[in-house]
Design goal:
Keywords: Amino-acid biosynthesis, Cytoplasm, Isomerase, Lysine biosynthesis. The chain contains six helices and 18 strands. The protein is α+β, with helices and mostly antiparallel strands and about 325 residues long. It has two domains: about 160 residues, Diaminopimelate Epimerase, Chain A, domain 1; about 150 residues, Diaminopimelate Epimerase, Chain A, domain 1 (Roll), CATH 3.10.310. The radius of gyration is 19 Å and the shape is globular. The structure holds ligand LBFN2T5F.
């Protein structure tokens, strides 16, 4: 089959965007998963953290389905939703839209550039659920809020939440970011295990002074990525709950691929997060795929120039992190 796609990224979390609205593909469920495994394979010609399928919705402006690089489908993707927001808004000539995702219809909108020349979108991250059954996390208690999990670590305290994909968040020190601790415990909860039967995205978060945090995430279905949008949103919320940052105030969230802003809204005991950041396109490509043989060739690739501007933002962030993260 012949497929045309656009590769893009949100904070260096990179995706292949496949437009099922205009191109009339007739993918089966197995095809979508198999395409993710084949095309996202990092050592292959394209490589990505996942595929974003952009589809028609019968009640929203568009629909997003996200498949991780291992072929599993996720209920939500924050960085990916910014790319889909841009794609749908540009396709339909809109400045704001509603995108159907697996569990919610989410508001998205174009925003002033976070950095000169960097296309910027805001997406709604919601619903937020703390019930352990929503992840699921098999512990004999209803929620886990800044508490230890003895099977995972003697020292770290975790908060578990679904936004609505599952996240496990720990606020750590600079020292705890070093070494293999995050990798080891993430591999444990994303392999066959009793605690998280569906796996979980694991984030280590460091407070960098008021209103600034650094988040590093080991993603379910992928491994370490440059950034994870839902994780940065969930982590921002956790820091507000712990009194480290403020609700209703913009938090600068630094990551290994750049920087986003999160605003955490609280209404009684309900939460919703605005995630604001880049939606950068890297190239357009056409591929010829033989799914039964598990091979593909790239027949056309057109590089875009947006990344040059993004790299300036990235360089500034890297400079800041080199000193900020050590403290
Ligand atoms: N990178 C994404 C999340 C993608 C899905 C995640 N790996 C999962 O399986 O839940 C984001 O930006 O939120």
């Amino acid at each position: 089959m012949n497929i045309i796609l656009t590769k893009g990224h949100g904070s260096g979390n990179d995706f292949l965007i496949i437009d099922e609205i205009t191109n009339g593909y007739s993918f089966s469920e197995n095809d979508r998963s198999a395409l993710a495994k084949l095309l996202c394979y990092r050592q292959g010609e394209l490589g990505a953290d996942g595929i974003l399928y952009v589809m028609n919705s019968d009640h929203a402006d568009g629909r997003m389905r996200v498949f991780n690089a291992d072929g599993s489908e996720a209920s939500m993707c924050g960085n990916g939703l910014r790319l889909v927001a841009r794609y749908v808004c540009e396709l339909k000539g809109l400045d704001e839209a509603v995108i159907e995702t697996m569990k919610a219809n989410l508001k998205v909108s174009r925003k002033p550039e976070i950095y000169d020349g960097v296309p910027t979108y805001q997406v709604e991250i919601s619903p937020v659920l703390f019930e352990l059954s929503a992840l699921p996390l098999n512990l004999d208690q209803p929620t886990l809020l800044n508490e230890k999990i003895e099977e995972l670590s003697d020292d770290l305290r975790f908060t578990a939440l679904a936004v609505p994909n599952p996240h496990l968040v720990a606020i750590v020190t600079g020292g705890q970011l070093e070494g293999n601790l995050q990798k080891e415990l993430s591999e444990k909860v994303n392999g066959p295990n009793v605690l998280f039967p569906d796996g979980v995205n694991v984030s280590f978060v460091k407070q960098l002074g008021s209103g600034n945090i650094y988040v590093r995430t080991f993603e379910r279905g992928v491994g370490f990525t440059n950034a994870c949008g839902t994780a940065m949103s969930a982590s921002s919320l956790v820091t507000c709950l712990q009194g480290l940052n403020e609700f209703e105030t913009s938090i600068q969230v630094y990551n290994n691929g750049g920087k986003v802003q999160c605003i955490v809204h609280r209404q009684e005991d309900k939460y919703q997060i605005d995630l604001i950041g880049n939606a950068t396109y890297l190239y357009n490509a056409a591929v010829n795929v033989d799914l039964s043989g598990g091979t593909f060739t790239v027949s056309h690739q057109e590089e875009l120039t947006e990344q040059h501007t993004y790299e300036k933002l990235q360089a500034e962030v890297q400079g800041f992190l080199n000193t900020a993260i050590k403290g």
